[in-house]
Design goal:
It is a multi-pass membrane protein. By secondary structure, this protein is mostly helical. The protein has helices spanning 2-15, 36-47, 55-64, 68-92, 99-106, 109-126, 129-143, 147-156, 169-184, 186-212, 241-244, 256-268, 287-316, 327-334, 341-360, 362-372, 391-407, 410-414, 419-435, 451-465, 472-484, 493-523, 527-548, 566-580, 584-608.
Length: 611
């Protein structure tokens, strides 16, 4: 009996939700100074980074060919789905912490801690400061003929598996300078970020305009019969047959439809970063309106930029001749515009600078949000009286990222990909769906309830409305019909429970469907896999149909996701599919990080939580 009570107490603790009402939603210890333009520049800077100068070339050459343009378009659309969900939560819960706070309000404390802990990992190591800092150093070093690398290899090279060739002290210095800038004040940080972002956009416009003067649409439809290739000094296809072999069959879709989809999965990560806007809930002026506008505008700018750059690059040169490390400078050199490589290099430095700022800015905000809630150590929530920034959290996260940048190789840093970010995107989409059917001012548990309660309540309703129905088959049909299509015009506790269960079933089916597709990719099709595919498709779609038939809450918002539950469900599926497609090594590394987080939560967070 005692054990059951203990389990119930633990269950209540991990599923308790953060209470954010209209009276406390505007409270903040941080300085509210960020405008819509500041937020848009922050999102563009964090998203439109190294990917525009490197990723376009590697995806076009090795994965998608000229159809990389379509890959970026599909990736942009899927990212916009996530952006819409984040935008609604920015209007609902304008608090610092991004997906962590959003999931805390709806799903519960344990899930919120997992998301926050993963976001810290993503911003510090994966898509954030450490990896971008090393990329920044590499690009800067290339401008000065690799003098830094040459000197460091001579004086203090490291020959240890998993570590870098040499300790990158320059990256550490860059990280700490930007950490000091962020700690000094949000207004000053926003000004520097805007300058770098405007310069980056200017360089992209230059690349598109200059590159399009050398565009050749034959490069999108090149086949074996073509007599020569643009930029190959008149070499015939026969002379290039050996080099051509690894790069598909030519045309706009040289790697076929699967190449297009695979390229989309890679291009999706180029749009990761806009969610940093959602961490500014306590520093934005009028966050209910400025955060949604900042997210939508930044994604629109990034979408146009990626489409323009990928189109320009593949029209300047045949896709299989593109350079994977420096595609734009090499492409300009091939078409007789070598001088253009210098402004491109400046743009790359600016883009990496804004990416670094965009990666470092959210880190202390998430740590601050978790610390002020009591899930991390309280001293991390201390805000400086003059700068109005979380000073300790800022310098601690910056120092950690700088140390990672010193010792670890760039490849090792990005091995984890963006699994934490994808998990956050999934939980935010799930939370949007749940909140649309949420019973406000009433307690509705997410997991701890019985499905039997649902049928019992509907049985009582059915019996009261039709006393003549005494035989079970008809009563069972009425139960089912009223379960799927209730007469209530607003959410009730039982409707919220139905939506919760349907969401869990659909998400689980999506995950199993993704796992089955991964197995099919490895082992090929067979009859058993086809049966499972059909079952999991039905298990994903049917619950969403049931949810769509339920009445939604009529709470007015400055921004809300259209076509609920379709848009959140599509977003959930894309994110879950991408997470499952990550290599097993990524999940192994995640386990280590999550074990550390679990220890902190169980031995500190559960007891010190403000809720």
């Amino acid at each position: 009996m005692t054990g059951c009570v203990g389990c119930a107490e633990i269950g209540q603790a991990v599923t308790r939700r953060k209470n954010v009402d209209d009276d406390t939603v505007g409270e903040s210890k941080l300085a509210r100074v960020l405008t819509v333009f500041d937020l848009t520049a922050l999102g563009v800077g964090a998203t439109l980074g190294a990917g525009v100068y490197i990723l376009t070339g590697s995806v076009a050459k090795e994965i998608s060919g000229p159809s990389v343009v379509i890959s970026f378009l599909i990736a942009a659309i899927t990212s916009i789905l996530s952006g819409l969900c984040y935008a609604e939560f920015g209007a609902r819960v304008p608090k610092a912490g991004s997906g962590y706070v959003y999931s805390y309000v709806t799903v519960g404390e344990c899930c919120a801690f997992v998301i926050g802990w993963n976001l810290i990992l993503s911003y510090v190591i994966v898509s954030g400061a450490a990896s971008v800092a090393r990329a920044w150093t590499g690009n800067f070093d290339a401008l000065i003929d690799n003098k830094i690398k040459t000197y460091m290899l001579e004086c203090c090279s490291m020959d240890v598996p998993g570590l870098a060739e040499y300790p990158d002290l320059f990256s550490f210095v860059i990280v700490m300078i930007l950490t000091a800038l962020i700690a000094f004040g949000v207004k000053e940080f926003a000004m520097v970020n805007k300058i770098f972002t405007v310069l980056n956009i200017g360089v992209i416009l230059f690349v598109v305009i200059a590159g399009m003067t050398k565009a050749d649409f034959h490069n999108w439809a090149w086949t074996f019969e073509a007599p020569s290739l643009n930029g190959t000094n008149g070499a015939t296809m026969a002379q290039l047959a050996i080099d051509w072999a690894p790069y598909g069959n030519g045309g706009f879709l040289p790697f076929g439809f699967f190449g297009l989809i695979s390229g989309t999965a890679t291009c999706f990560y180029a749009f990761v970063g806009f969610d940093c806007i959602a961490t500014t809930g306590e520093e934005a002026i009028n966050p209910q309106k400025s955060i949604p506008m900042g997210i939508v505008l930044s994604l629109a700018v990034c979408c146009i930029a990626y489409l323009a750059i990928s189109a320009t690059l593949t029209l300047m040169q045949p896709y299989f001749l593109l350079d994977t490390l420096a595609p734009l400078p090499v492409a300009f050199e091939k078409v007789g515009m070598a001088w253009a490589s210098y402004p491109v290099a400046v743009g790359a430095i600016c883009a990496l600078s804004t990416s670094l700022l965009g990666a470092m800015f959210p880190m202390p905000r998430i740590i601050y949000a978790m610390a002020i809630d009591g899930l991390l150590f309280k001293f991390l929530a201390k805000v400086h009286d003059k700068t109005k920034t979380p000073l300790i959290a800022t310098f601690l996260s910056g120092t950690f990222a700088g140390i990672m940048a010193i010792f670890f190789d760039l490849k090792e840093l990005v091995d984890l990909m963006s699994i934490g970010t994808l998990a956050a995107y999934t939980l935010v989409a799930t939370s949007v769906m749940l909140l649309s059917y949420f019973v406000f001012n009433q307690e509705v548990k997410f997991v701890i309830f019985s499905i039997r309660d649902i049928f019992d309540q509907y049985s009582r309703i059915a019996m009261s409305q039709s006393s003549q129905l005494s035989f079970s088959p008809t009563l069972g049909i009425i139960k089912f019909v009223m379960l799927v299509r209730p007469k209530s015009s607003f959410p009730t506790p039982i409707i919220s429970k139905i939506v919760n269960w349907c969401t869990v079933i659909s998400a689980l089916s999506m995950a199993l469907f993704s796992i089955t597709i991964a197995l099919i990719t490895q082992f090929g099709w067979n009859f058993i896999f086809i049966i499972f595919i059909v079952i999991f498709i039905l298990g994903s779609i049917a619950p969403i149909v049931v949810i769509a038939l339920q009445p939604q809450s009529g709470k007015e918002l400055s921004f809300s996701v259209p076509l609920v539950p379709l848009v959140p469900a599509l977003n959930m599926f894309v994110n879950i599919f991408l997470m499952i497609s990550l290599p097993p090594s990524t999940w192994y590394k995640m386990v280590i990080w999550m074990v550390l987080g679990a220890l902190i939560y169980l031995f500190y967070g559960v007891r010190h939580s403000e809720e």
